[in-house]
Amino acid sequence: MGVDRRGLRALIQLGAPARHKGASRTSVMMVSVLKEKMKRIPTLTKQNVIAKSTGSVSGSTKGFKDFVLRREPEEDDGSFDNKEMLLQIERDYMEAAKRNDVATMTLLGKNVNHNAKNVHDRTALHFAVAGGHRDVVELLVKRKVRVDVADKYGITPLHLGAWFGYADIMRMLVQEGANQKALNQEGMNILHCAAINNHIEVFKYIIDDLQMKDLDAQDKSGKKPFHLAAEHGSAEMVKKMMEEDYQLSTTEKDNEGNTPLHLAAKNGHTEVVKSLLRTLQERNELNEAGESALLLACEGGHEDCAEVLLQAGYDVSIVTKEGRSVLHRVCESGWTSLVKLLINNGADINHQNQNKLAPIHLAVMKGHIPVIHTLIEAGCNIDITDNRKQTALHLAAELGKADVVEMLLKANCDLTLQDKQGKTALGVAARGNYVIIVDMIIKGERYFTWKKDNAIHNDTIGREFPLTFKFDHKTENKQIRGIMWNLAYNQLKDNDWRKLAVEWHFTEPQIQAIEEQWIGPKSYQEHGHRALLIWLHGVQMTNQNAGKELFEGLASIGRKNMAEKIREENAGPEPKKCTIS
């Protein structure tokens, strides 16, 4: 029985396996088999569809990423079903082109619009070229498809051939009259596409065979192909364009004032940077933002690249229009190894930007502990103030960064400095209700006051208890911490803790900072507990007898019974641990 081709065409165009009037049973079966065959084809994944492109995809290459990942961008028009812009047969035809299914395209070919566009203005030829499907391209060319159709981003099939490195397919398209000078919406031509992706064969085809050296022009961002090759790390392309035979290298700046070296350094392309430095005479050139290639390399964390630039003589002291140095950028980003590299190469560790922020301020604001440690070890001024007259400790207290506060306290920062509002770091922490930090700073103030007044004993400090201002979690002190809690919550009266604090030389600002915390009518219990633990820290750090000091303190505020109980517990040939039941 012969095939009813007229009925078959109608069924395929309708996209349904239902029996069509005038169609034979055989034709219906053929369409059903075809449809099932197409369903069984596995979904394309990123791993098995990415073409030969070796370059990265950036914002300046808008539209190409859709082809790299084999997906469509988000649909902009939600007013109607965009998918209905294509007939089912046209969608099937495009899908066949994507997966190099020549057989299906041959079967559908006589009944389909070969130039049909999807909602993104892409045709079957776009997908065939992007996939490197030479056989499909040949089929479409034989069917006289339009070879210069641009999609919504202005990308033509010839752009895609250059982007993915298919010189042979490009030859086919050029022979069919493809426009070799076509520009996409970003102003990129085929030479830009080849340069980005390091496709030497395509480059040589364009320059040697097509003699299109005039394509060495700027795109809308002011970048020539050489800029893009440097920006995307196309090392071989950069070297090729620098050769005497081509002379397509440039030191011109793009619209943002970036030279090819700026772009290569920003993206960490060390080999490209080395190539450019061999012929570059000018050093420390700045872009419109006042940024050097060294600053851009460091900002991106590209240590190898930064080291190459430093060895080439780049200046670490250059600052941007906002007064930001290279060290500012890396401290803010947290690149510890780069911080060390810059310091070792003479970077000013105390340079302040237009807001008077020094590197230590930025590191503290971001909480980069290793960077802070590196700056302190290098001898930075930890008491330097910004335009709010705040030190690094003020900022750490304001932001509630206890670990940073600990580091700064250990570095013996100045605890008396006041900001523009007249607040010390202690006042800032109390205002923010950062209880842990308040207690840490009070411990620090008391400890360093004692150290200053007892300089002769400083050599014995910390032998038993390592210096720290954090809450004590050590197991061996669990018992005495329990005693302090019991004393505060069960035995001391409302104003007793304040009297003890005065007896133990707490300052009035310290007492007020503790009292900033409010948890209800019995807040005094928590206040007393905190004061006792702060006092205990000082006793331990200065190697004093806790039992004796507590006895004397309680006796001085009129709690003799409690004091006598402590005396009894500590009586005997050897003093016992301070215990209160």
Automatic annotation (TrEMBL):
UniProt keyword annotation of DNA repair present: no
Source organism superkingdom: Eukaryota
Coiled-coil annotated residue ranges, if any: none
Domain Death residue range list: 496-570
Record keywords: ANK repeat
InterPro entries noted in UniProt: ANKRD_45/46/60, Ankyrin_rpt, Ankyrin_rpt-contain_sf, DEATH-like_dom_sf, Death_dom
Transmembrane stretches, start-end: none
Keyword GTP-binding: no
ANK repeats (start-end): 120-152, 153-185, 221-253, 256-288, 289-321, 322-354, 355-387, 388-420
One GO BP: signal transduction
Name of the molecule in the record: Ankyrin repeat and death domain containing 1B
Originating species: Erpetoichthys calabaricus (Rope fish)
Lineage: Eukaryota, Metazoa, Chordata, Craniata, Vertebrata
Name of the gene this protein is made from: ANKDD1B
